[in-house]
Write a structure and sequence with these properties.
By secondary structure, the protein is of the alpha+beta class. Helices cover 53% and strands 10% of the residues. The chain has 3 domains: 4-160, Butyryl-CoA Dehydrogenase, subunit A, domain 3, CATH 1.20.140.90; 164-296, Aminopeptidase, CATH 3.40.630.180; 300-336, no CATH class. The protein is built from 15 helices and 5 strands. It has a 5-stranded mixed beta sheet with strand order 1-2-3-4-5, covered by helices on one side. Helix 2 (32-39) runs antiparallel to helix 3. It is globular. The N and C termini lie far apart (63 Å). Mean pLDDT is 85; it is low at 23-30 and 331-336.
Length: 336
């Protein structure tokens, strides 16, 4: 996150770049695709920063049809140089070595990756690139055509959003209203039914943790909800009951992870959940050493259909105890 001083320096440099490019702060005289191609030139940091800012500003103002056209332009262009790639491949085949492998890797990298890196220097660019990938993933009609751009974005976002850059925060009732509203909107497992429901989920015997990134300081990437109990809960309803009194969390011996939700569709396929759960386990154990049991009540999509198929095909081989376990699991059809 840029400090006020750094932002002043950036603004000064970008303004100088605009003057060199004759760009107004509110727009650009050139088409966005021309600016994108020009961004790869070697004209100096100030002008490149101004180009990046101009492209991001223009992109945010484009209508859907114009954005789709820009996506196609980025996906179909900025390919590796064919002759350089061929020469590097032949050199590696002739003499496999660390150096020829390095040269081959450099020759095979799409210039599009460098373009995206340069775009990311502009304020707000990271969020814009995440939204761009979200649109690409949703554009199923042209998914194959847009795949080169989507994959390059995924590659860079996976690097920029790796665990070393993520910040774990506890969410409680004192967290900003803007973030709390986003928790209500992003909850994907058990719907949060208004502020009273959210207040119960953030009570003293509950915990909520989320990962944030410096480039999106007010946007949770993923969050997990935990109930602190005495003994493992048998079902989810008591944990979600609005108005139920809070338990004495200092006496809890069990942490039940009952919901985990990802928040940014543009980061789909980039793993956060495993890291989040492991770090939350450490945080909980440090706060409450008496916690000795950890479990989950998260739903398992497709479990019922798998269970009923198993009963249909393998029911005769099940023992009486297994039949009973299946009944308790809620199967609709149990073999006689």
């Amino acid at each position: 996150m840029l400090t006020a001083r750094l932002m002043q320096v950036w603004t000064s440099v970008a303004e100088r770049g605009r003057q060199l490019l004759r760009l107004s702060p509110n727009g650009a005289a050139r088409r966005i695709d021309f600016l994108a191609a020009d961004l790869l030139s070697e004209r100096g940091e100030a002008t490149n920063m101004a180009r990046a800012e101009a492209i991001i500003r223009l992109y945010e103002k484009l209508g859907k049809e114009q954005r789709d056209g820009f996506h196609r332009y980025l996906a179909q262009n900025f390919l590796p140089d064919t002759e350089c790639l061929k020469a590097a491949a032949e050199a590696y085949l002739a003499e496999p070595s660390a150096e020829t492998a390095r040269q081959l890797a450099l020759a095979s990298e799409s210039p599009r990756l460098e373009l995206i890196r340069r775009l990311n220097v502009a304020p707000g660019a990271t969020a814009a690139l995440v939204r761009m990938r979200e649109e690409l993933l949703a554009h199923k009609e042209e998914q194959a055509l847009l795949l080169p751009l989507e994959q390059d974005l995924r590659h860079l976002l996976a690097s920029w959003f790796n665990r070393g850059f993520l910040e774990l925060r506890r969410i409680d009732w004192n967290t900003s209203a803007a973030i709390l509203e986003k928790l209500i909107a992003y909850e994907a497992v058990h719907e949060i039914r208004g502020w009273d429901d959210l207040r119960r989920r953030l009570a003293p015997d509950r915990r909520c943790f989320a990962f944030f990134h410096p480039a999106l300081p007010e946007e949770p990437l993923i969050f997990v909800e935990v109930a602190l109990c005495q003994g493992l809960a048998g079902n989810i309803e008591p944990l979600l009951r609005i108005g139920a009194p809070a338990d004495d969390f200092t006496k809890a011996d069990t942490a039940v992870f009952y919901s985990i939700s990802t928040c940014q569709p543009g980061l789909r396929g980039i793993s956060f959940g495993n890291f989040l759960i492991k770090q939350v386990l450490e945080e909980l154990h440090a706060e409450l050493p008496g916690l000795t049991k950890f479990g989950t009540l998260s739903p398992v999509p497709g479990f019922r259909s798998w269970l009923e198929k198993t009963l249909t095909t393998d029911g005769d081989a099940l023992s009486e105890a297994e039949h009973l376990a299946f009944r308790k699991a809620g199967a609709d059809r149990v073999p006689p």
